[in-house]
Write a structure and sequence with these properties.
The chain is built from 19 helices and 14 strands. The chain is α/β, with parallel strands linked by helices. Bound molecules: uridine-5'-diphosphate-xylopyranose (UDX).
Amino acid sequence: MKIAIAGTGYVGLVTGVCLAEVGNPNVVCVDIDERKIERMKSGISPIYEDGLEELMIKNYELDRIDYTTDYKSAYKDADVIMIAVGTPERSDGSANLDYIKAVAKQVAQTITKDTLVVIKSTVPIGTNDEIEKYIRKNLVNDVKVELASNPEFLSQGTAVKDTLHASRIVVGVESEWAKDILEKVYSPFNQPIVVTNRNSAEMIKYASNDFLALKISFMNDIANLCEIVGANIEDVAKGMSYDDRIGDKFLKAGIGYGGSCFPKDTKALHWLSNYNGYELKTVKAAIEVNEAQKLKLVRQASKLIDSFNGLKVAVLGLTFKPETDDLREAPSIPNIKYLIERGANVVAYDPIGIENTKKIFKDTISYTESIDEAIEGAEICFIMTEWKDIVNYDLSKYKNKMKRALLFDGRNCYRLDDMKNLGIEYYSIGR
Ligand code: UDX
């Protein structure tokens, strides 16, 4: 079976590499970026993802995977074409399907045999139906084409592990033919396969992401109340977690969720519900709580000082979560903007996110790859991402190196007792 994959971002590339890794002999990843393709052929991943490059090199050497910009040769004789291009947010919150439509057009013009087109990108409910109609209408050759929805649930940073050991594979199909093909594709993974119709599969993806986003926003909301009434959100989360119906994951309060999925997918589903004349109140609440949460600490800090103007402010952790170099929708961004607008001299630290941060803030802030350097002489420090080296940092250094040991921790990295014993002015979330 030949499997072509459109798009080599987190979803496309990881899916392609993992399909090759479980033994598919003919996987080809397509991207429009020539340089990216050349680099991938030499084993260099365009994204930072644990374990990915090893598998890229191994499977390229085994001749099970190839990379190309030549979509015609990739699609024309493929049995399965997986679409894994971006569906970014439009200014009104709706999902932009332009990239999906561009691939659909190429598919319609090139395929020469019966093909199952699988949408892995997160798309509004009804998109598979729409794209199927579009491709059929624009087909150049007399072949059978059908669409299937197969949403992806991998998390950045653990994408390879999440794909090879997924909790489930969701397959949304409208025929036995499509179901059989996808069961064959995924059987080597030995994971539970949930088969639904296409609309339900599309909805499973949004509902899953929005539920997780809501879970985080709920904990952030409760955390804010904990601060007012003198409770500790970590103890509260622990006490809740023993109930199997609640579980112990995604209960961590903090400075808000970011990344390429939760912010986009909450807004997209909210938009879609409004468009259909229904108000999804829970998802709306998740979005609102998250927006407010992101600037919670800088607002709190501004009440404790006269002004940010001219202050050296250290910002530790820039990526939207640890183990990724991705800054999309990272809470660090609005926080740094807030600080710059108020005249602070921001020194930003991150173990691997500096390059991407420079693309956003250019020379408006300073950058360092050392926590020591970031906090040296600083008057305030904000923690935005719980990188291991930040969590394990020698706390006495905050006291010794900072001009004023005033620390705002958006990820609850440290114990309250430790900070109290060291005499550090310490503010965290919900405790
Ligand atoms: C998410 C989903 O987990 C994944 O299933 C989906 O396919 C894509 O979106 P990802 O964006 O990679 O994955 O990151 P995730 O680990 O889910 O974290 C998202 C954000 O939530 C981060 O900013 C993280 O800091 C925050 N978060 C997560 C919390 O604030 N508290 C938590 O308890 C968990």
